[in-house]
Amino acid sequence: MLGHCLSVAALTFRKSPFVALANVAVLALGLTAFVATYAVTDFWNGAEQQFENADRIFVISSRIGRPSDLYSAMVSSTISQSSANTARSSRP
């Protein structure tokens, strides 16, 4: 099975080398994007784990832009219920 796949790949490369190289380049670009995204996500998910009270660290963010903007800057926030209640009560 593997031999058949390799022979078909070699035949395709001989028949149209530019298309085959373009396919390999796009595949490499996609794999690089996946690995980079995974690395950034893994870093952000575990960046605070070395601290003693890592389970008590939260990110509070805000939205920048008008509510009608489709592409305004927004970062997900994770806060405790008491922090959310405090923020709601201190708001005019």
Task: Describe the fold and architecture.
With 92 residues, this protein is mainly alpha-helical. The protein has 2 domains: 1-51; 58-92, no CATH class. The chain has 3 helices and no strands. It has helices at residues 2-15, 17-46, 81-89. α1 crosses α2 (17-46). The model has no long low-confidence stretch (mean pLDDT 79).
Features:
2 domains, 92 residues, mainly alpha, 3 helices
Describe the structure in brief:
Helices cover 58% and strands 0% of the residues. The protein has three helices and no strands.
Radius of gyration: 24 Å
State the helicity in percent bands.
55-70%
Mean pLDDT: 79
Roughly how many Å apart are the termini?
A: 69 Å
What coarse outline follows from CA principal-axis ratios? Answer: elongated
Largest β-sheet summary: none
How does the helix and strand content classify structurally? mainly alpha
Distinct helical segment count: 3
The unreliable regions are none
Kindly estimate the percentage of residues that lie in beta strands according to DSSP. Answer: under 5%
Tally of structural domains: 2
Beta strands, count = 0
What order do the SSEs take from the amino end to the carboxyl end, as H and E? HHH
Helix and strand topology:
Layout: H1 2-15, H2 17-46, H3 81-89
